[in-house]
Amino acid sequence: MMTRLYSSTVLGVDGVEVEVEVDFRPMAEKRTFIVGLPDAAVKESGQRVDTAIQNSGLPFQQGIFVVNLAPADLRKQGPGFDLPIALGMVAGAAEKEMDASAWCIVH
Predict the structure, then answer these.
(1) 46-99 pLDDT, tens per residue?
(2) Regarding beta strands 31-35 and 63-70, do their DSSP bridges make them parallel or antiparallel, or are they unpaired?
(3) What number of helices (H) and strands (E) belong to the chain?
(4) H-type helices in the chain, by residue range?
(5) Structure confidence at residue 34 as a pLDDT band (50, 70, 90)
(6) Which run of H or of E encompasses 35?
(7) Contact, 71 vs 37, CB < 8 A?
(8) Does residue 94 contact residue 54 with C-beta atoms inside 8 Å?
(9) Which of 2, 46, 43 lies closest to 24, judged by CA?
(10) Cβ neighbour number for residue 47 with a 10 Å cutoff
(11) For residues 107 and 97, what is the distance between their CA atoms, to the nearest angstrom?
(12) Cα angle vertex 106, ends 103, 107, to 5°?
């Protein structure tokens, strides 16, 4: 299931909208891929988010998560994407679809 959320990043002094798409495929193994020009802190958010979700007690399925941060030509920096990625992963692995198209999730 694919989930789409919106967040933002800073470019100079302006805020730029970032689309966070999370695709989930149930599998026996657990893997997270983050694409879309993330810096090291954003790439590491996969491990931070996985641990936080598992420790939260929320129901969470094993599988492969592909997180796409668009636009792809804009560098994404810092741990501010942890919250939208976590919400997208929880929603993507859930059995109900989440509609967050009217929200911008910023941490």
Answers:
(1) 899 989 998 998 878 889 999 999 999 999 988 889 999 999 998 888 866 777
(2) parallel
(3) 2, 4
(4) 40-56, 82-93
(5) very high
(6) strand 31-35
(7) no
(8) no
(9) 2
(10) 10
(11) 22
(12) 145
